Amino acid sequence: MPTLRIADVLVGSGADWAAYLDSERVGRYTQNLDALPPVVVFDTEEGLLLTDGYHRVAAAQQRGEQTIDAEVRHGSREDALRYAAELGAAQRGIPLQDALAYIKRRSGRWSDER
């Protein structure tokens, strides 16, 4: 399992990601971060893109960590966004198309309308 620098993981994440965090969840994760699964990062042509694990990254930052364990997948930006949409739809019990539309609006970039 690779360990990545948090700064590298967050480069392509956009400036507003922290606005969507649940501070209580971040606090819980800070206490048991070592027991949580690694974050999921896509290695794209544009660089690394964090697709699952924003709360874990914030918890690691609160603990003063500079690195985080990551599962690294290879693919396009669209592959990463689709993965995030599938995960979000499953977690929230919403249709995949609704999750895709939300991510498309937030990302502002989506070339693959599968």
Structural write-up:
Helices cover 46% and strands 20% of the residues. It has one domain (3-107): Alpha-Beta Complex (Conserved hypothetical protein from pyrococcus furiosus pfu- 392566-001, ParB domain), CATH 3.90.1530. It has helices spanning 6-10, 23-32, 54-62, 77-92, 96-107, and strands at 3-5, 39-44, 47-52, 67-74. A hairpin with a 2-residue loop joins β2 and β3 (47-52). The longest helix is centred in the last third of the chain and has 16 residues, at 77-92. The model is unreliable at 110-114 (pLDDT under 50). By secondary structure, the protein is α+β, with helices and mostly antiparallel strands. A four-stranded mixed β-sheet has the order 1-4-2-3, with helices on both faces.
